[in-house]
Amino acid sequence: MSQQPTSASGAKMFKVAFDLDAEKPNWPPVSVERLWGEKTEVKFEIRLLNTPFFARGVAHGDLIQVRPDHERRELVFDHFTSESGHSTTRVVLMDTEAGSEVETRLREAGCSWEKSEQFASLLAVDVPPAVDYRPLREWLRALTADGVIEFQESAISSIHRGQLPNFPKL
């Protein structure tokens, strides 16, 4: 019998299912994304422990409420509770030769990312609260204009929105 995994803080970790709506034909390429999270002291509250590839509106460290789905035998995302200050962007490498350069620049900016073998050209980028998002965003937009990448802002924290004077307010 396998033991329940625990996070670095010692809390029990759980997979949380995020049901995804189609944004366009064939996107996202999956209907459900499962993210790791750890229990908090609040009933059915989870702190996310990884960066989503497809789920919108959530980032690493955010607090969410889940509900048990007994038929599916899993926890399912119910609603967002509070942000962690982290932001999530997705980068799609249109020019795979640029992957190393993009990763180096993201690392220098203080970001981390996740990759998937299934979606090799996709990076799920975690932008921590201490990162100055304005120059990072300008660089990502320039690469997009040059056709090197496409990027999507999935969850931009209030910290990072505050660094962008013309960013749409929530």
From TrEMBL:
It comes from the Bacteria. This is DUF4265 domain-containing protein. It comes from Catenulispora pinistramenti.
